Amino acid sequence: MKKNSFWLFIFCFLLSSFVTGQSKLQWSEDGLALVRLKKNQLVEEAVETGKDRAVIISEKEFGNTEPFKSMDDYSWHPSSGQLLVFNNTARVWRYNTKGDYWVYNVNAKKWFQLGKGLPAQSLMFAKLSPDGKQAAYVSQYNLYVEDILTGKRKALTKNGNRRLINGTFDWVYEEEFACRDGFRWSPDGKKIAFWQVDAEGTKDFMMMDNLDGVYSKPIPVEYPKVGESPSAVRIGVVDIASAQLKWMNIPGDNRQHYLPRMEWAGSQELIVQQLNRKQNQSILHMTNASTGTSQIVYKEVDEAWIDILPSIDDDYSYGGWDWLNNGKSFLWMSEKDGWRHLYRVSRNGKEEVLLTKGDFDVIEIAVVKEFEGYVYYYASPGNATQKYLFRSKLNGDGLPERLTPVDQPGTHSYTISPKADFAYHSFSNHKVPYITESIQLSTHKNAGGQSKIADAVVQSASRKSALEFFKVKTEQGVEMDGWMVKPDNFDPGKKYPIVFFVYTEPAGANVVDRFGVGNNRLYAGDMKKDGYVYVSIDNRGTPAPKGRQWRKSIYRKIGIVNIDDQASAAKEVFKMGFIDTARVAVWGWSGGGSATLNLLFRYPEIYKTGISIAAVANQLTYDNIYQERYMGLPQENREDFINGSPMTHAKNLRGNLLYIHGTGDDNVHYQNAEILQNELIKYNKQFQFMSYPNRSHGIYEGEGTTKHLSTLYTNYLKQYCPPGPR
């Protein structure tokens, strides 16, 4: 049951050509300018004036060069005067993480291609050494280091293949732990630490390509289903000069635990996070890079599960660890007191200080500014649908300080300058489209002494919006956030059809205050104009910043708690008086598709029509990391997996069901479609089904696919849940 709600999922695919973990908004070394591409030049744009203060690489230098013309991503390295460029990219599972890499040296005014002689479009995660003289990268499951000026290349591993993966990860680590970039340069540039995944003991799931020729083509994917042991993962450190390799000695059976995070702790040690199979115990090990010996420095347990930082904060998906006081302590996030808080933990784990005091959740970390003694982070204590910038002192003194102006309600993001005096600020809410500007952080004003964001909020105050946020409290006492889009020319004295958009699982929330949140891009037309009420509600278990109990009440109860909450909330919405309870539809994608099925099967008296896309019909078919994290081990509580699976309740179908799945879905396998169909056939339940050949989980590949899916969705909805008031 996939972690991303549908629109976040589509957003990820739209960005997939640009997401490599390299390119981020960059500040100049003095923190007074932003480094960005403008008019075919790489420039420094002064924050205070908004004008270009320097040209780093001119349009003439870039010229008509192939690396620049086809550039998908880049990162600027001012200390060595080099631009690292990623182009000719290709998709690996979800993102475009392989392709070609080039380095442009400003002093030499010359392009250097990395990996010459290796297969085109095969390099992954190239990173410059700390001194900028070398680059390391992965190609065809092996790790290489290369001298940039001479092109001399050294293979640091030679045994890589589809089953023995060096420097990157298998499908499930990438998908569920956000582990993609699998190696790290040591701070002194003398060593590289890397993950090795041994998938030899992991079973292949065979997908079939029936479009490539007259004979079907099997496509194997190493995919550990729930209940199956994980691939074996270990961490090695290789010396660049000698190519000698040392494996880190992490205690335990490496097929019964996970190693989702690893970073250097200075140039001689690594810090490694180890999760047990159930993911409810986290251990931090400090390992010696030369001897491989390890020592436990910090341990945490939870009755449900423990989220790792990259799953909360995307900035950590490609590495990073927040060290403080010259490596004597580090920043850590935990829910141990019932809220997601930040702690300062000593290097040996014996001392810790709570930094973010109060009954609220830290949503994610913005930046740590040790020189001024603060950690900046996002939170929203009063409204779980919004996101604001706060800061707390690194010594634990005082209370959190909100920096975002209180008169700017919505969703904010900041990229803060090195000296924390300026920031690149982005904002939107359900009334205001996405806006960005460079500001002075203390005043939230831009170079002209104004604020585009503040002006936009003022202008939107009198603007009517068809979308409204609301709260609903069920008879069981559960209060949930929701949004509702009412039809044009709404008449509360009439009855309207309602369409619920659901996701409901621990990895995605739908009810967020940002622009476009109430849009339904699958609907070919205007739902408001046609006369639908469109609603989404976040149940318990969704990752809203409402505390540990809210999020983890769903443990071992996916398909039960979330479904009961949704049905109870629907009953409360009906009490508003303008809903035609004979015309009630529900739809969702992935985890939302599973919820759609369960709602239709378990509450047929409420939901009359459902459109389910790429759903998990049987929880035992999904991957082990995701499903076991939230449900436990089927060897111990198999009945929970069965009770929460839609196929168990398929016999109760009374309404109208359209089920859609791509046959090339490597995430939620097409197998689920056939399992569900088989159950429905068994009980003579009539339904409609559409398969999309070779389409993946996003069902977007191929000419005409998006239009066809939208037309199918819209026609079915209009036929079985007719629009308009009555």
What does this molecule look like?
With 726 residues, this protein is α+β, with helices and mostly antiparallel strands. The chain has three domains: 1-153, no CATH class; 156-313, Methanol Dehydrogenase, Chain A; 467-720, Alpha/Beta hydrolase fold, catalytic domain (Rossmann fold, 3-Layer(aba) Sandwich), CATH 3.40.50. 17% of the residues lie in helices and 35% in strands. The strands form ten sheets. An eight-stranded mixed sheet has the order 35-36-38-37-39-40-41-42, sandwiched between helices. Strands 13, 14, 15, 18 and 19 form a five-stranded antiparallel sheet that branches. Strands 1-2-3-4 form a four-stranded antiparallel sheet. α9 (561-574) packs across α10 (591-602). It starts with 5 loop residues before the first helix and ends in a 6-residue tail after the last helix. Mean pLDDT is 95; it is low at 3-22.
